[in-house]
Amino acid sequence: MYDALIIGGGVAGLTAALYAARQGMKTLIITMDIGGQLLTAPRIENFPASPPVSGFELANSILEQAKEFGGEVIYDEAVGIEEVKGGFKARCRGGEYEGRTLILAVGKKPRKMGAPGEDVFAGRGISYCAICDAPLYRGRRVAVIGWGEQAHEAVSILRSYGNQVYVVYSGRPEEDDRILRGLRELGAEVMLGVRVEEVAGDAVVRRLILRRLDSGERVELEVDGVFVELGYAADTSWIKGFIELNERGEIVTDRLGKTSREGVFAAGDVCDLPYKQAVIAAAQGAIAALSAHNYLRRISGEPEVKGDWRKLKP
Question: What is the pTM of this model?
Fold first, then answer.
């Protein structure tokens, strides 16, 4: 049985593994890939103490750190969790694994347009994070797909880098709609009642094929980048009933990463904290791991370590 069973190989899960393994905990990461949402980021410029680096490179560097301290990785998909004597069991497609503590870092997945070419150009002109990738498109023609506060924030960020921004939305809000007014005030060209039918290009995105829903007219929009701002969904249906989730399917945690079930912790974008950034997910992963370490100390009759890093292993 492992001391720390971590489900998820994004920045939160990898950092949790690093911190758990560094405290001498026998640690296993169960994940389908390494990097999670980081893999959609071709260049990350805002991770502290790191030069500009791709999401893939950042994820793998954290993984190597975790491995140096004995962390292990199994590439598998978790489909269920249950409590067993002395801990928890993760049921996966390829087997079952047990741990004295459980850290859930399964992240969130961006909602996609569902248009042909989207998967082909993900990371090659299609981005799901304006705050991450806007600097890469400085002064270019870009499209934002979506509506609401998230789309408004993306347009604001993109316009600050001098981009010509088109907003593509399938709905038709009233002329006095607050979001519509705000987008126009930012200088965006808003295209309403339009659906994305295809993403086209060569090595990178070059244009969007659009369809006007009222007339059926086909429209081609030349762009250098596409920012999909349709929100994110937490894939937590498989743990529903095991721990408390909010109305969006996010895991409810406290400031120490504790969930509603003793011995189960969570970190990263799957949690109910509103800020979804790599550095924040990494911090939550560290907190969850240290909380799991303290939990094991407590149930073993040892004093918990509270706020004094010198008591932790160097």
Answer: 0.70
